[in-house]
Amino acid sequence: MSGFDPQRTDIATHVSAELDPAERGRAFGRANRTELHAAFARYTTLFEALGGKTGLIAEWGERALAETAAWAPALAEEIAGMADGAGLDRWRLGALNGRTEVLAALAVTGEGECSTAVVLPRTGAPRTVQTWDWHDTFRDGMLLWSLEQGSGRRVHTFTEFGVVGKIGVTSTGLGVHFNVLRHASDHTGIGVPVHVVARRILDEADTVRDAVDLARSARLSASSVITVITFDGERAEAAGLELSPAGVAELPLDEDRVLVHTNHFLDPKLAEGEGTTAAVSSTYDRLPGLRDRIGAVDTADRTARARALHSHRDGGVPICAHADHALPAHLRWESLATISLDLGAGRLYAHEGGPCRVEQDGWQAAPPEPQGEIA
User: Fold this and answer.
1) What order of strands is seen across the sheet that includes strand 167-170?
2) Is the domain of 211 the same as that of 178?
3) What is the mean pLDDT of the chain?
4) Residue-wise pLDDT tens digits, 331-340
5) Beta carbons of 160 and 39 less than 8 angstroms apart
6) In this structure, are 90 and 157 located in the same domain?
7) Do the domain assignments include residue 374?
8) Cβ distance 67 to 96 under 8 Å?
């Protein structure tokens, strides 16, 4: 069932009860046919603006799906099912899931996306928050998706229509945040999509070590950082996994039990191949800005945690981004959503817009909660 309405300002929702991946995908595709066609149309416009021709995008989409089939067969079945249910060529869903790989193959540079902060208090559940920054023309593509696994595990993800996963949390107490990176080793030989890696971690990993092992088993052609957090009700762990074709680095918590990340590599070895510069990205300003706000992020109140990231370019640290409409659409960036994970309850909370728009009653939960229950 889909809660999408293009006139609404909140985030669309979908709940999948199907246990078979192919049937889950087909049911999703049938329920969200219009949204999936619109999602591919938006990405077609973006790819074309960045120099991607239809034939080349089709080839890369097919490769992304083939790489997924070899590394995560169940997710390839789910993606193919989405395409079939929506009446789309399967390569188009391959390109949606491989959108980071396509953009890396097109050698895209630019502002980048997302700022993540995680604090593990000495007692109690982890405290997490991130912005999801993307082109403002993609606002209608956001989705909160909850699904059941045959094992009884439930996965909840903030993602985009047609993309199997991004930021998420499981009923077993594992969560992931997600930021894009760019590396000199990124290449055109399309590998396993990083969004597929994030989803498989949500589907299968129980520990940070499980997530590291899964990430290192994938042949990658593009870069991202997946921040993995676990909580068993008493003990919490976290690590930042910097993914690149040159390797996967594991970033530990600092001495204050904090992890922050923006859009450049922090591992010293991988940083030698950094593909982002201060000339095109605010990432180098945003990272110390996040660190400066950790005291305010370290609170059980998710609204206060999100508001701690309320900082604009005119204040020197553009953590909360707003589109410059003097620029063409493919060069505009905006904080389209703010997300926080509740690992103790196995819930994901998302708020439409950046930190400056966050209000106590504006959060949406995955899985959905009855109106009035979000605190």
Assistant:
1) 12-16, 142-148, 154-160, 167-170, 174-181, 223-231, 236-244, 247-251
2) yes
3) 94
4) 999 999 999 9
5) yes
6) no
7) no
8) no
Q: Are 143 and 235 within one domain? A: yes
| Structural domain includes residue 110 | no
E strand intervals along 106-173: 115-119, 127-134, 142-148, 154-160, 167-170
pLDDT digits (tens, 9 = 90+) for 309-368: 999 988 779 999 999 999 999 999 999 999 999 999 999 999 999 999 999 999 999 998
Short-list 260, 344, 362, 336, CA closest to 300: 344
Residues 356 and 265 in one domain: yes
Domain at 151, CATH number:
3.60.60.10
Number of separate domains in the chain: 2
Q: Name residue 208's amino acid.
A: V
Q: Are strands 236-244 and 223-231 parallel, antiparallel or unpaired?
A: antiparallel
- State the pairing for strand pair 142-148/12-16: parallel
CA-CA distance, 361 to 351, in Å (whole number)?
9
Give the domain range for residue 41: 14-105
pTM of the model: 0.95
Examine residue 157 and state whether it is found in any structural domain, yes or no.
Answer: yes
Closest CA to 127 of 294, 292, 300, 251: 300
Q: Tens of pLDDT along 132-166?
A: 999 999 999 999 999 999 888 999 999 999 999 99
Token output for 205: 């990993």
Q: In this structure, what token pair is assigned to residue 214?
A: 């899964």
Burial of 233 per CB tally in 10 Å (0-12, 13-18, 19+): exposed
Tokens of 55: 């034939």
pLDDT digits (tens, 9 = 90+) for 33-58: 999 999 999 999 999 999 999 999 99
| Domain stops at, among 105, 126, 147 | 105
Of the candidates 192, 100, 141, the one whose C-alpha atom is nearest the C-alpha of residue 6 is 141
Report the pLDDT value the prediction gives residue 5, as an integer from 0 to 100.
38
**Would you tell me how many other CB atoms lie within 10 Å of the CB of residue 301?**
12
Q: How many residues are listed for the chain in this entry?
A: 375
Q: Is 315 left (phi over 0), alpha (psi -120 to 50) or beta?
A: alpha
Q: Which among 60, 82, 105 is the end of a domain? A: 105
CA distance 201 to 227: 11
